[in-house]
């Protein structure tokens, strides 16, 4: 299925496939941030735009961000998410995830991702840099949503590609392998030390500002004070804490 593409700037595109997959164009290489869920042909769309070698990365190892990995020789991800990727790539989890998706997706997606796919991971650590020629992008390890969640930071432009760490509305901390609000707060404090001028989230909108960082710190502080309320969903009992424009959803017993 053909992917929907939008040009945000002359050297930056977004490709939609249940998450925002960002394509950064450098003078020598292009960088694809996340490969989608596998419903749409993100790799083909990226190659038609880039017309140069593409380096692919996953901000974290969730099924809606690694579905196109098998089209690349290697995809960079933080090593702390190795177990997360293996869990979400298991056929039993894939069937569970597909059945939880909206009906239009549920009808098409199993044909693409029912069985396990090669994740083709190359592991990276905090602070490693990808050189695109005239642009350099850094991995910033930001555990919380998953143990190996990373943001991609381009210092020269102040761009931050947030994956599911820095998104409008909410960050989920109640999933398998998710960390605690205290861990997420430390990640947000790390991001607050950077010169972030534009944030490109993994979901909901294509571009926002860095005020989300302070809001998430506030939400984590509110959780530490015992604020929020309990709710129940398919993951079990959880605590929801709202602050500013965002909320966190964590396990009921999280500290």
Description:
Helix content is 26%, strand content 31%. The protein has 255 residues and is α/β, with parallel strands linked by helices. The protein has one domain: Metallo-beta-lactamase, Chain A (4-Layer Sandwich), CATH 3.60.15.10. It has a 7-stranded mixed beta sheet, covered by helices on one side. The longest helix has 14 residues, at 211-224. The radius of gyration is 17 Å and the shape is globular. The N and C termini lie far apart (43 Å).
* Beta-strand residue fraction: 25-35%
Oligomer: single chain
CATH architecture: 4-Layer Sandwich
What is the level 1 CATH name?
Answer: Alpha Beta
Brief description of this entry?
The chain has helices spanning 42-50, 63-66, 82-88, 91-99, 103-113, 181-192, 211-224; strands at residues 4-9, 12-16, 20-25, 30-33, 54-57, 75-78, 121-124, 129-131, 136-141, 150-154, 159-163, 169-173, 198-201, 229-233, 236-243, 246-251.
């Amino acid at each position: 299925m053909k992917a929907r593409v939008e040009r945000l700037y002359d050297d930056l595109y977004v490709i939609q496939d249940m998450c925002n997959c960002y394509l950064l164009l450098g003078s020598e290489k292009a960088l694809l941030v996340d490969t989608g869920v596998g419903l749409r042909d993100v790799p083909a769309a990226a190659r038609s735009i880039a017309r140069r070698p593409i380096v692919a990365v996953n901000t974290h190892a969730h099924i809606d961000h690694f579905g196109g990995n098998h089209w690349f020789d290697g995809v960079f991800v933080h090593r702390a998410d190795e177990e997360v990727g293996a869990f979400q790539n298991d056929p039993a989890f894939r069937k569970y995830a597909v059945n939880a998706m909206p009906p239009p997706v549920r009808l098409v997606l199993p044909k693409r991702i029912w069985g396990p796919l090669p994740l083709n991971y190359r592991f990276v650590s905090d602070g490693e840099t990808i050189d695109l020629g005239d642009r350099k992008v850094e991995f910033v390890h930001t555990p919380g949503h998953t143990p190996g969640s990373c943001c991609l930071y381009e210092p020269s432009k102040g761009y931050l590609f947030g994956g599911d760490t820095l998104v409008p509305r909410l960050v989920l901390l109640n999933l398998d392998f998710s960390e605690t609000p205290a861990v997420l707060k430390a990640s947000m404090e790390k991001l607050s030390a950077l010169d972030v001028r534009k944030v490109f989230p993994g979901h909901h909108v294509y571009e926002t500002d860095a005020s989300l960082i302070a809001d998430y710190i506030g939400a984590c502080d509110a959780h530490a004070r015992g604020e929020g309320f309990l709710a129940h969903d398919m993951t079990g009992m959880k605590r929801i804490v709202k602050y500013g424009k965002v909320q966190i959803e964590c396990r009921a017993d999280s500290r």
